[in-house]
Design brief:
Elements: H1 10-26, E1 32-36, E2 49-56, H2 62-73, E3 76-77, E4 88-94, E5 99-106, H3 110-124, H4 126-142, H5 146-152, H6 154-166
Parallel strand pairs: 2-5
Antiparallel strand pairs: 1-2, 3-4, 4-5
């Protein structure tokens, strides 16, 4: 079973602290760092993992950021996801108190736009956020695997993004 937690105001604080550290250790200009995923939506139940979206001008510059995050910040770089998502570089880190997933993508890529649009819809439309939370609770009770849980949310996310694009 997937474990969801009630919203925790510390998620936003943890994001802000990690953002400051990323900016400090990467010393890369041109990065835009955003809090995405369910932990970025006040009031929403979520897996207690902070999703961070980093926008970069070009993936050609990604190696510099990857090296600094792995060496200086104890992130684990997961290269095998590039087979299915070649437009994204993925990292994760777990400490004693919090876990982070980082998605490094080109600014203005469709992945960038979709994650921000979905987050913004959930933040501004309480009825959609509630519908999403109910879906997540039901799916979490019936899935043991994070990948199948995530896949099961896809139809809702695609539908929500389509609505958001027409607005």
């Amino acid at each position: 079973m997937i474990s969801l937690s009630h919203y925790n105001k510390n998620w936003a604080l943890n994001f802000k602290r990690e953002k400051i550290l990323i900016e400090h250790f990467t010393q890369s200009s041109g990065l835009i760092i955003e809090h995405v995923g369910s932990t970025s939506v006040p009031g929403l139940k979520a897996k207690p993992i902070i999703d961070i979206l980093i926008g970069i001008n070009s993936l050609k510059d990604a190696d510099k950021v990857i090296d600094k995050m792995v060496i200086n910040m104890d992130y684990q770089y997961i290269a095998h996801y590039e087979n299915t998502m070649p437009y994204r570089r993925y990292f994760k880190k777990t400490t004693n108190t919090i876990s982070f997933n980082v998605h490094l993508v080109e600014i203005d890529s469709q992945f960038w736009k979709d994650l921000l649009l979905f987050r913004d819809i959930l933040r501004s439309e309480p009825s959609i956020a509630t519908e999403y939370e109910i879906l997540k609770i039901n799916l979490a009770a019936n899935h043991n695997d994070v990948a199948t849980y995530a896949e099961a949310k896809s139809e809702f996310i695609i539908r929500t993004l389509a609505i958001g694009r027409i607005r």
